[in-house]
Amino acid sequence: xxxxxxxxxxxxxxxxxxxxxxxxxxxxxxxxxxxxxxxxxxxxxxxxxxxxxxxxxxxxxxxxxxxxxxxxxxxxxxxxxxxxxxxxxxxxxxxxxxxxxxxxxxxxxxxxxxxxxxxxxxxxxxxxxxxxxxxxxxxxxxxxxxxxxxxxxxxxxxxxxxxxxxxxxxxxxxxxxxxxxxxxxxxxxxxxxxxxxxxxxxxxxxxxxxxxxxxxxxxxxxxxxxxxxxxxxxxxxxxxxxxxxxxxxxxxxxxxxxxxxxxxxxxxxxxxxxxxxxxxxxxxxxxxxxxxxxxxxxxxxxxxxxxxxxxxxxxxxxxxxxxxxxxxxxxxxxxxxxxxxxxxxxxxxxxxxxxxxxxxxxxxxxxxxxxxxxxxxxxxxxxxxxxxxxxxxxxxxxxxxxxxxxxxxxxxxxxxxxxxxxxxxxxxxxxxxxxxxxxxxxxxxxxxxxxxxxxxxxxxxxxxxxxxxxxxxxxxxxxxxxxxxxxxxxxxxxxxxxxxxxxxxxxxxxxxxxxxxxxxxxxxxxxxxxxxxxxxxxxxxxxxxxxxxxxxxxxxxxxxxxxxxxxxxxxxxxxxxxxxxxxxxxxxxxxxxxxxxxxxxxxxxxxxxxxxxxxxxxxxxxxxxxxxxxxxxxxxxxxxxxxxxxxxxxxxxxxxxxxxxxxxxxxxxxxxxxxxxxxxxxxxxxxxxxxxxxxxxxxxxxxxxxxxxxxxxxxxxxxxxxxxxxxxxxxxxxxxxxxxxxxxxxxxxxxxxxxxxxxxxxxxxxxxxxxxxxxxxxxxxxxxxxxxxxxxxxxxxxxxxxxxxx
Length: 806
Prior knowledge:
By secondary structure, the protein is α+β, with helices and mostly antiparallel strands. It is 26% helix and 29% strand. The protein has 20 helices and 38 strands. A 7-stranded mixed beta sheet has the order 26-29-30-34-33-32-31, sandwiched between helices. Strands 3, 4, 5, 6, 7 and 10 form a 6-stranded antiparallel beta sheet that branches. The longest helix is centred in the last third of the chain and has 19 residues, at 782-800. The radius of gyration is 40 Å and the shape is elongated.
């Protein structure tokens, strides 16, 4: 928020430097993101009195003798048409810096340094300046918009610095306002804080006005949506005279980036910045039916706003209507059909409080924002709503813009604007802070903040102003005390239950890092996706209506429908990632993600959902296969020093014959498989894709498993190949387990061939394995190995009817 120092001084006697004020604001919780002097680029420019001015023959130039007081008298060549003897103008001395202007003398092109020059053979020792060359416009200083020299006041003293005269010595603070302090999103709100931190008296803006006897007898206000408009105030002003605002108001607005329009409109903009209350002024002659109605818009209803944009509305939007039509989009912008113009003679002022969530949602949904919507979205309090109306009527009277009538209508839900009483324990306040703040300091601080504290023993009674809606209990009081008392008073200390640790990663973090490292080593890249997905993603994955994955948590206020559900699977986002890569011409790759899925215990939610950490991996490419994905699973198993087993399974989005469930020690931990061809076609994939999901919550019980060291044998391994004839329903896992069960010396079993053909019966298949025997304490002799072979064959035949292929 842009905050001019000069505007703050209207309410507080500030006796510290801008730098000191910036530090004090930071110390009490307000970060000054930037501070700068208004005339930061202007230097060495003084008041110059032109003592002689003679035209240079056959040119538009004049040769001037300019008195710069203690700096001396200088010869200046000047081409301005308003230079004359006896005039006082800004004089940039040699070495001064001013703004360079374009040929139109309106556009600033940068900062330039003034050097001695020569024009038409005459030496010039400086430059007389226009307003634009000093960075000024008509709003910042009267006369600055003229395409000629800037005329200075007659009482300006030759040789004095022009910055204080022109207001270029003012400072602008760009202050970051936190979400819990909407009362500070205005100049007066910040002045309250400055007065408190400096221990100064706060001056209140003038609110007095005199209402005459004029009344709009038939005028009425109806609020049909009091749930989102708890206070609405309207006041009628007549005999309005539209004209230019006074210089002081135009300058105030210009310093915060607002251009002057007319006196009535400027008053509403002035209050917007001064008090943080958006206001609107309706041209009463355009209000039909002598009525204002605050209601929800009808579906399909339309309005054209002041910026000439047309919007189609619905019942989520709040509108201000006259007796027949909408005349303003509440909290966002007025309608074009009731704007103030040069012919306006009577005005109806509006000051209201609208629900912040309604304005925020409407502004975002319509794609229409304004300074008003920004303020309402953060929060406007009813105290300021009432105060702003009084301020507006005072300014109308002070500026002679119109006559204030006695027609004043206020519709409220009964919320009080008086301070509310709060009682807190001083001991509890100090308990939150962990230090003992002297009671007299607590009283001083809370008095400066306007809380009117009264102490009775340990009890502190406060009167909380209506504009401090953030104050609820003693922790809030503790925050107010410490930010003014100083955070440097807080003594670092351990929490009572704290323990000293050596730091580092915990077991879960260490294990997850190891999983990531081994997957990266296997050629996979880590991806991160949103925790939300679309209902269409569940349809893409072909989940039936009763599938657990469809039991998803729906967001109340999603960004859009594609991000409206909390994800129950990582597979859909992985498929989209694979598809995006293929569309960009990347036709092979491996991706993984470690993220949470959100499982609701029941819907609608009555407690927090179960957040289950999940590993999802995807591979794609012509050279990739089901076994590539199985290899990534085995990579994870090896990293955890566990063994995975696999069983055929069915998933609606995976190939029916290339899908497997993954188990660890008999517990199901996930699945893997090839993505169905029709889904690949739907996503415009050009090469096959495979996906895997593992439940790390289940897998975490094996994190940190102790590894058993097995020394490398001094003796050579023995290897034997087997070709078995088995029934077609026999799995690789059954055979591998049977081989290992039959012999303790088996260290590795590898399937290297599967054959089905005319040489075998229709219900049989051939499976060929390489089996490695590793010796323990002695060399394996051929006779012993042959015994191992016989044991394996006997065990397989007895348990599964498996025989060697002839």
